[in-house]
Amino acid sequence: MQKAKVRVDKDFVISEIDKRIYGSFIEHLGRAIYTGIYEPTHPKADEQGFRKDVIELVKALKVPIIRYPGGNFVSGYNWEDGIGPKELRPKKLELAWRSIEPNEIGINEFVDWTKKVNSEVMMAINLGTRGIDEARNLVEYCNFPGGTYYSDLRRKHGYENPHKIKVWNLGNEMDGEWQIGHKLPHEYGRLAREVAKVMRQVDPDIELVVCGSSGPGMPTFPEWERIVLEHTYDVVDYVSLHYYANMPGPNHIDLPDNPDLKSFLAKNLEMEGFIKTVVSTIDYVKAVKRINKNVNISFDEWNVWYHSFKKDKNVEPWQIAPPILEEDYNFADALLVGCMIISLLKHADRIKIACLAQLVNVLAPITTVKGGIAYRQTIYYPFMHAANYGHGVVLLSKIDSPKYDSKLYTDVPLLETVVTYDEENSSITIFAVNRDPENDLLVEYKLDGFEGYKVVENIVYVSDDPYKGNTPKNPDSVVPTLANNSKIDGNIVEVLMPKFSWNIVRLKKNKE
Ligand code: AHR
Q1: What CATH number is associated with residue 47?
Q2: How far apart are CA 393 and CA 130, in angstroms?
């Protein structure tokens, strides 16, 4: 059997974990809103038309922040279309996804929904077709207490208290040719700076996210970040990054026809390379500008995306809520999502916000059947485990693991792992993936500085078939189970990780 060793020390802390690293994203796209979170005719709809079964599944994920309303959608969106009496709201052509937007849900309803799921909104503004004026009006509508045109309009719409939306995206993927109102880096940098200044004048407490690259494969990466930050460094708080694993392109793996699972599971390393380069670029601009403040990362779109491309080509345009970007995730995808979460946590010193893209139906951990059930996709589970148990600080891990070379990547460790420590609850959580599709892996964790801990739970997620997923007929086909694969002796924890598995070991200090 292959073996690996990991050493952590209570004093060697990478960073505190900002709970917003477990954020998600809902766009006016496909069936995310309509027949996703909102379906007034559904038997489980509440008084506002929101599906209560979906609310329960989202609550269990413990998502602290949800990005809204896009995505590519936002670059053509007029926020005023989604406020006021529903019967007066316009139906519009939605150009980003070639759909029809009924505007039955807008900012106010979405804020209500986020409260129902114990979350809050991270708001994106339109910098594709719009600019300074609409941005300042939107902040006034959402965050100003009252006594002005837009704040009083909100009150007239039934929302006496301001929404106090804290985090704002200055547009979406403005580097992409596909974006409505795509811009060159200096054009976007100038606009983002001026918009940021007025938004802060309306509400000085907000945090601002400037668009970084839509992915590491973009031809303008990382010059985009450098130029945009040279314009905006002093007026923004975060740079936005997006990464989807296994989109069509040079590194696409055609699963299951060419089952190169070893390359597939290493894709999070590409994501980590992206993070490192952006951190370096941010710090380079900081040095050039001779500014003390740090700009951090909002990784506000990340996930696996490759199943829906072919079938989406057959969907008729100009429908309300077309079934697009609906990924039927399998077990291998869940393991890669686990690896990606570990990558985000390893960089928690700079990643303060991250959004699993998305949340319901579109590239999502939760799928709904119109008029029927809502169920968990395979990727739901690793995200839920991390958001529920990955709190406190991330400890620096010294990992000694056997490595492999795959068709696309070299020096890939069999073991992907991170350890978090929550001092308040005297608890340690080990998150780990055994990437090996053929063999189990025995891992020894030496936890320096920790005395008197015991294993309270060991969860393992495995499947007899890596391409199996959950379906409406069989919604619990691939679920994690409790295991007995770990033991502790002093401060040494030994974990037997089955081949191709996601593993959680939760430890707590014995009460004296
Ligand atoms: O999440 C789906 C789409 O992916 C978003 O609208 C866009 O920002 C990204 O390209």
Answers
A1: 3.20.20.80
A2: 40
Which residue, 235, 212, 234, 239, is CA-closest to 224?
Answer: 212
Residue 77 lies in a domain: yes
356 lines ligand 1 (CB under 6 A): no
Range of the domain at 373: 21-389
- Give the pTM: 0.97
- Euclidean distance between CA atoms 60 and 58, whole angstroms: 5
Q: 168 and 246: one domain? A: yes
Same domain, 478 and 330: no
- Dihedral angle, C-alpha 411, 478, 51, 44, nearest 10 °: 180
Model confidence band, residue 250 (pLDDT cutoffs 50, 70, 90): confident
Catalytic residue among 39, 173, 225, 326: 173
Tokens coding 161: 């208290």
Domain boundary (357, 372, 389) is at: 389
Asked whether the beta carbons of 337 and 379 are under 8 A apart, the reply is yes
Closest CA to 450 of 105, 4, 7: 7
**Calpha distance 277→299 (Å, rounded):** 13
Give the chain's mean pLDDT.
97
**Distance in Å, CA 337 to ligand 1 centroid:** 17
